[in-house]
Write a structure and sequence with these properties.
Blueprint lengths: L3 H14 L6 E3 L6 H7 L4 E7 L2 E6 L3 E6 L5 E6 L6 H6 L9 E5 L3 E5 L15 E4 L3 E6 L3 E5 L1 H9 L11 H12 L5 H4 L11 H10 L13 H21 L10 H9 L23 E5 L2 E5 L6
Antiparallel strand pairs: 1-8, 2-3, 3-4, 4-10, 5-6, 5-9, 6-7, 8-9, 11-12
Helix pairs in contact: 1-8, 5-8
Length: 305
């Protein structure tokens, strides 16, 4: 499932190439025909991400709310601008040019394509297509895709915990600390609760807890205030790296060789995620995988004892 950094990058892509432009909206698949008709021909005025949810605001104060869920993805074709200077250096987006295709979901994939015509014909089950004169964005497989008003947007946002990108204030940190430390629920579950903190999914949950050397089964109320504040600040730090690079890079402080390998290969990026049965990178104890509330949890039973 795409985590917070991915959704923020998608919102940034819309900000670069769609905001300020009149947008043609359609539903090639047909399942979103009525919603597409509501925003067809309107100018996009804002792209915003909060946690795993993205909101595109059109004129007339109509909002397109998207939650990618497990299988959702956006495909961009045509002029696809770089998001950050670092991402351009890493080659994840490249310089603005035509005949470029970018898939943005849990991970990103960029390639040059030989488009015989623009726009390219939709391929597969495209729920909604948004198009300017130069760029096309096709959405596939979302959990949620709806046109709503400002009041409904406010209702959705009120249910979400703080997102450091949109609210990295002392008050947001205090809210996070209070939410964790007043509950008997295991901290490994609390970090996945989007009403407590927005954007953390399975990967960041496992990596944050290992970096903090916290046992995921520790009740939130038993985690010290200093530890909870450190979790928040580490989430701020890792989320910024993810947005800048397009990767969940959690093994910082490594040698240049290790860092280079991590950027090239996902299996080299993590301390514990998807490393069950392999030796811990710190203590050599075998990493454990278990189910916690039906989601896979990875941790080191020694370093996180």
């Amino acid at each position: 499932m795409p985590e917070g950094h991915s959704v923020h990058r998608i919102a940034l892509q819309f900000e670069r190439d769609f905001v300020g432009h009149r947008v043609a909206a359609s539903s090639p698949q047909g399942r979103f025909a009525e919603g597409a008709a509501e925003i067809d021909g309107l100018t996009l005025v804002e792209a915003r991400a909060v946690g795993k949810q993205m909101f595109l605001r059109f004129e007339n104060d109509l909002w397109l709310r998207i939650h990618l869920g497990i299988y959702g993805a956006w495909d961009f074709f045509g002029t696809v601008s770089p998001i950050t200077s670092e991402s351009e250096a890493l080659g994840s987006m490249g310089a603005p040019r035509l005949r470029r295709a970018v898939r943005m979901a849990e991970t990103e994939n960029t390639k040059d394509v030989d488009l015989e015509s623009f726009p390219p014909p939709p391929v597969g089950a495209v729920r909604v297509r948004l198009m300017t004169d130069a760029t096309v964005a096709d959405l596939r497989g979302p959990t949620a895709c709806e046109v709503i008003g400002a009041d409904q947007v406010a209702t959705v946002l009120a249910r979400l915990g703080p997102d450091p990108v949109t609210d990295n204030t002392p008050e947001a940190e205090d809210r996070f600390v209070a939410s964790i430390r007043t509950k008997p629920t295991p901290v490994g579950l609390l970090l996945m609760d989007q009403s407590i903190v927005s954007g953390i999914g399975n990967v960041y949950r496992a990596e944050l807890l290992f970096r903090a050397r916290l046992n995921p089964h520790t009740p939130g109320k038993n985690v010290s205030e200093d530890q909870v504040r450190a979790l928040w600040r580490d989430w701020v730090y890792l989320l910024d790296i993810g947005i800048r690079t397009g990767m969940m890079l959690t093994m910082d402080g490594q040698t240049p060789e290790v860092e280079a390998a991590a950027r090239l290969n996902r299996s080299d990026r993590y301390w514990v995620y998807k490393r069950e049965g392999l030796p811990c990178r710190v203590c050599s104890t075998h990493i454990v995988m278990e189910l916690m509330a039906s989601r896979k949890l990875y941790w080191c039973p020694n370093d996180q004892a």
